[in-house]
């Protein structure tokens, strides 16, 4: 079940050409189980029809301060109280100014004044307007009120100019919404995560690797950030974008990953080794491309460093060492191999992952894992999205942190 299931989102749309983009946001929120109610300013109704937003949200759209039906409900009060989060998107310069100065001249700004819950503001406007000192001062003011502001993207605007002012991408908004609802059991923690495959070159164009996509590690990084952690993600080659608010360090080989992990280790309070690190690398990298035509080709391999085992040895030597979580990607004897690695590598928790199934192997969007911890606890996690699986892992980490205290 998603963190957004049954959450009540109030979406405030203002007068910006970017209003058409949020139509897809409503559909995305509903797919995750949210209840979405839309409030539109008079100017917003000139850019997109309230009928469109009503059809997409499945709820009536509110546009005026004084409801023609059931006026006794006092819409700006009831809407503020009945919803878990107010998202203002796109937020025009006019609306931001009203929010900053407490001007309640329409239903949306009145709801904002009456709301005691979290408010997320997504500006969208011409770049000169956005960079104007008045707008910047207004943004600073609403931030001081506790509103979260997602900075707009840079690019080509509707007016043809280039610069900051484009409405931020949905994934950034989604992560901010998830953060508003996620438990904060990782606040003040410095989490170090490795993800993705490594590549071990044997000539300038060829390498040894594995099918890892990094999806599980990236999901762990995103959800740790949602839960309040400062996150460093050391990633092998993947096609994934860095999660918002996460510091990403790109590496290629196992040796490079080892060096970066050790460089970041001193500040880490939790280390999660989710990367699929190559066990071996070619003993020699050829300086030029190996040509075809040879009857056979022998490749001598040498062992790569076992980063997780090295971390486990350090853990034994220091009482202030970070909590250590490992992964065991297995195709058979899953629990036996997981228990062995948990003990041999001195881990606090191991995530045993079945790579043999079509729904749980490399590249899948879902996972089914077993969690084994140092206290002998075993938890079977059902088939879930990798994001939901990541949350289950952090729940288990939270229990271990509580035991430590």
Write the layout of secondary structure elements.
Elements: E1 8-13, H1 22-31, E2 35-40, H2 50-57, H3 75-82, E3 85-91, H4 93-101, H5 107-114, E4 119-123, H6 127-131, H7 133-144, E5 148-149, E6 153-156, E7 162-166, H8 170-181, E8 190-195, E9 200-203, E10 206-208, H9 215-226, E11 230-235, E12 247-250, H10 254-264, E13 270-273, E14 280-282, E15 301-303, H11 307-317, E16 323-330, H12 334-344, E17 349-354, E18 366-373, E19 378-385, H13 386-404
Parallel strand pairs: 1-2, 1-3, 3-4, 4-5, 8-11, 8-13, 11-12, 13-16, 16-17
Antiparallel strand pairs: 6-7, 9-10, 14-15, 17-18, 18-19
Give your account of this protein's structure.
A hairpin with a 2-residue loop joins strand 9 and strand 10. The protein is elongated. The protein folds into two domains: 8-181, Flavin prenyltransferase-like (Rossmann fold); 190-280 and 301-404, CoaB-like (Rossmann fold), CATH 3.40.50. It has helices at 22-31, 50-57, 75-82, 93-101, 107-114, 127-131, 133-144, 170-181, 215-226, 254-264, 307-317, 334-344, 386-404, and strands at residues 8-13, 35-40, 85-91, 119-123, 148-149, 153-156, 162-166, 190-195, 200-203, 206-208, 230-235, 247-250, 270-273, 280-282, 301-303, 323-330, 349-354, 366-373, 378-385. The protein is an alpha/beta fold and 405 residues long. The two termini are 30 Å apart. The strands form five sheets. An eight-stranded mixed sheet has the order 12-11-8-13-16-17-18-19, with helices on both faces. The protein has 13 helices and 19 strands. Helix 4 packs across helix 7, helix 8 (170-181) packs across helix 9 and helix 9 packs across helix 13 (386-404). The mean pLDDT is 92.
């Amino acid at each position: 079940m998603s963190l957004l299931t049954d959450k009540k989102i109030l979406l405030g749309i203002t007068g910006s050409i970017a209003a058409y983009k949020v139509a897809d946001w409503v559909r995305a929120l509903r797919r995750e189980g949210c209840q979405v109610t839309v409030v539109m300013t008079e100017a917003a109704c000139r850019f997109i029809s309230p009928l469109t937003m009503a059809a997409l949200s499945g709820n009536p759209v509110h546009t005026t301060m004084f409801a023609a039906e059931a006026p006794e409900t006092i819409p700006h009060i009831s809407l503020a109280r009945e919803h878990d989060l107010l998202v203002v998107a796109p937020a025009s310069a006019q609306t931001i100014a009203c929010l900053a100065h407490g001007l309640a001249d329409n239903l949306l700004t009145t709801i904002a004044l009456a709301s005691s819950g979290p408010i997320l503001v997504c500006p969208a406007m011409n770049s000169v307007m956005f960079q104007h000192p008045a707008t910047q001062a207004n943004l600073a003011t609403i931030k001081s009120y506790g509103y979260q502001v997602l900075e707009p993207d840079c690019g080509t605007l509707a007016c043809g100019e280039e610069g900051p002012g484009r409405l931020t991408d949905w994934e950034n908004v989604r992560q901010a919404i998830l953060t508003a609802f996620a438990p904060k059991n990782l606040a003040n923690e410095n989490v170090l995560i490795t993800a993705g495959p490594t590549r071990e070159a044997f000539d300038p164009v060829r390498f040894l690797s594995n099918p890892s996509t990094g999806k599980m590690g990236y999901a762990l990084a995103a959800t740790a950030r949602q839960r309040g952690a400062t996150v460093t993600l050391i990633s092998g080659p993947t096609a994934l974008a860095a999660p918002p608010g996460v510091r990403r360090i790109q590496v290629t080989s196992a040796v490079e990953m080892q060096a970066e992990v050790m460089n970041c280790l001193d500040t880490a309070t939790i280390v999660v080794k989710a990367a699929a690190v190559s066990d071996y690398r070619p003993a020699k990298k050829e300086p030029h491309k190996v040509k075809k035509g040879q009857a056979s080709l022998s490749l001598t391999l040498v062992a790569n460093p076992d980063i997780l085992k090295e971390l486990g040895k350090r853990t034994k030597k220091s009482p202030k060492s970070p909590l250590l979580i490992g992964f065991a990607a297995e195709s058979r004897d899953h629990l036996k191999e997981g228990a062995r690695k948990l003990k041999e590598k001195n881990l606090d928790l191991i995530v045993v992952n079945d790579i043999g199934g079509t729904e749980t192997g490399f590249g899948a969007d879902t996972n089914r894992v077993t969690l084994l911890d140092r206290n002998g606890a075993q938890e079977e996690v059902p088939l879930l999205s990798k994001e939901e699986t990541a949350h289950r892992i952090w729940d288990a980490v939270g229990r271990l942190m509580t035991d430590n205290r």
